[in-house]
């Protein structure tokens, strides 16, 4: 269990150092857990919720210590970190929507071990930067471990 706890604190410190919370993106704590009960109910044994971007109950992104869970209009996606191989800015999607400034980006492209790509959305600005850096760290530290 010690490693899991340690991983959580490393990820949270990256999020805080490289980005931070926003109006819709919060680090989950005992004080605000009530706001994220629907998301937390999806956790599996030993999994800890770290950060949640929640627009509403059908559009949110939950980052835990072991995976990324997203719901877009009721469609749910979960990617365990062990299957995450790449994290990139969703440049094409942002530019297509005329978003030119990196500070306004809200999407990342995640690629899994089967080669599938997924676009996940989060809050722009500090939360986006923090989540991107966290996920980038997860992918990099996995590569270093191999």
Task: Kindly state the percentage of residues in helix.
Answer: 25-40%
CATH fold label: PH-domain like
Care to count the β-strands?
8
The whole-angstrom Rg is 14 Å
Q: Output the number of helix runs.
A: 4
Q: What is the CATH superfamily label?
A: Pleckstrin-homology domain (PH domain)/Phosphotyrosine-binding domain (PTB)
The CATH class: Mainly Beta
Largest sheet: 5 strands, antiparallel
Arithmetic mean pLDDT: 94
Instruction: List the secondary-structure elements in sequence, H or E.
Output: HEHEEEEEHEEH
Gross morphology is globular
Unreliable residue runs: none
Strand percentage lies at 25-35%
What is the CATH architecture term?
A: Roll
Domain module count: 1
* Strand arrangement across the biggest beta sheet: 1-2-3-4-5
Oligomeric grouping of the chains: single chain
Q: What do these coordinates show?
A:
- The structure is a single chain.
- This protein has 146 residues and is of the alpha+beta class.
- It has one domain: Pleckstrin-homology domain (PH domain)/Phosphotyrosine-binding domain (PTB) (PH-domain like), CATH 2.30.29.
- 32% of the residues lie in helices and 32% in strands.
- The chain has helices spanning 2-18, 37-40, 91-96, 126-145; strands at 25-27, 49-56, 59-64, 67-72, 75-80, 84-89, 107-112, 117-121.
- The strands form two sheets. Strands 1-2-3-4-5 form a five-stranded antiparallel beta sheet.
- Helix 1 (2-18) crosses helix 4.
- The chain starts with a helix and ends with a helix.
- The model has no long low-confidence stretch (mean pLDDT 94).
